[in-house]
Design a protein that fits this description.
Layout (H helix, E strand, L loop, with lengths): L7 E4 L10 H9 L4 E4 L17 H14 L5 E6 L2 H15 L4 E7 L16 H12 L4 E2 L12 H10 L3 E2 L12 H4 L3 E6 L8 H9 L3 E6 L5 H4 L1 H13 L4
Parallel strand pairs: 1-2, 1-3, 3-4, 4-7, 7-8
Antiparallel strand pairs: 5-6
Helix pairs in contact: 1-9, 2-3
Pfam families: Abhydrolase_6
GO molecular function, one term: catalytic activity
Organism: Microbacterium thalassium
C-alpha cells in the first residue's frame, strides 16, 4: 500500500555496513517508512571490492546510485559517524541538481563537515598520526578499533561488531568535501548526540551544531553505536523527525 511517509536511507560509518542498522530497520518499516540501508564500497558485504583508490566520491556515488535506482523522492538521509561526510556530499549534489529528492538529513553522532573540510581535519594530532600509520601498514585501509574500548557496548554487542567490522577505505581521510553549504541550510537537519561515553572524534561536530542556526539536536544517553545499544530510542528520534517534515 503506498505511503506518504518519507523514505529513509541509512548510511553507516567506518568499518560498518548496512548490517549495522539491523535493529532499527524493522521498526522503521513497521511504522510505514520505506527503508534502505546502503553498504558503501569496500565495507561490509562489499569488502571484496576494497581497493586503495576508493575515496569520498566513491561513497557519495553509492548513495546517489541507490536513490536513483530506487526512484526515491522526498527522502531522509541518515548518516552515522563517517557517514555524515557521505550524506553531506550526497545531499549537496541532490539539492543542486534534483531539488525535491531530499526532505531532510539526520546526523547520528556523525561528522558535520563545513565546506572544504575532510574527515580527519578536526581530529586530534595523536589520532591523525595513529590512523595515518595504520593505513600505511594496511594498503591504505584503516583496521577497525577494538569495540570493547570506549564505546559502552555489552560483551555480546562488542563481539557482534568485532565479527562484522571490516577494514575501511582510507582514501577520503584527508580529502576535502567541497560543496556549497547554502544548499543544505533550507533542509530540516537533526543531530543525534550520543555522549555517554562520548566518541572524541565527534566533539567538533557536537559543538558545531549547537553554534550554528537551523539545527535540531537530540541527546541519547549511550555510546557511539546507538543503533546497537539503544535502537528503540534512535527509532523514536527518527520517526519524530520524519513526522515533522512538511509534506
Amino acid at each position: 500500500m503506498p505511503t506518504t511517509k518519507p523514505p529513509i536511507v541509512l548510511v553507516h560509518g567506518a568499518w560498518g555496513g548496512g548490517w549495522i542498522w539491523r535493529r532499527v530497520i524493522g521498526p522503521l518499516r513497521d511504522a510505514g517508512h520505506e527503508v534502505h540501508a546502503v553498504t558503501l564500497t569496500g565495507d561490509g558485504e562489499r569488502a571484496h571490492l576494497l581497493r586503495p583508490d576508493i575515496d569520498l566520491d566513491t561513497h557519495i556515488a553509492d548513495v546517489l546510485g541507490l536513490i536513483e535506482a530506487e526512484e526515491l523522492e522526498n527522502a531522509v538521509l541518515v548518516g552515522h559517524s563517517y557517514g555524515g561526510m557521505v550524506i553531506t556530499g550526497a545531499g549537496a549534489v541532490l539539492q543542486e541538481s534534483q531539488p525535491g529528492r531530499l526532505a531532510g538529513m539526520v546526523y547520528v553522532d556523525a561528522m558535520v563537515p563545513a565546506p572544504g573540510e575532510g574527515w580527519g581535519v578536526a581530529h586530534p594530532p595523536e589520532i591523525v598520526a595513529s590512523r595515518l600509520a595504520a593505513a600505511a601498514e594496511n594498503d591504505n585501509c584503516l583496521p577497525p578499533p577494538d569495540p570493547e574500548e570506549g564505546f559502552g557496548l555489552s560483551e555480546a554487542d562488542a563481539a557482534w561488531l568485532r565479527r562484522r567490522h571490516t577494514p575501511h577505505p582510507f582514501g577520503m581521510y584527508r580529502q576535502p568535501l567541497n560543496y556549497d553549504g547554502a544548499l543544505l541550510e533550507s533542509l530540516p537537519r537533526l543531530f543525534v548526540d550520543c555522549n555517554q561515553p562520548a566518541y572524541p572524534t565527534i566533539a567538533p561536530s557536537r559543538q558545531r551544531v549547537r553554534s550554528e542556526p537551523g539545527w535540531q539536536v537530540a541527546e541519547i544517553a549511550t555510546g557511539h553505536f546507538v543503533m546497537v545499544t539503544e535502537p528503540d530510542a534512535l527509532v523514536e528520534q527518527l520517526l519524530a523527525f520524519a513526522a515533522g517534515i512538511p509534506e
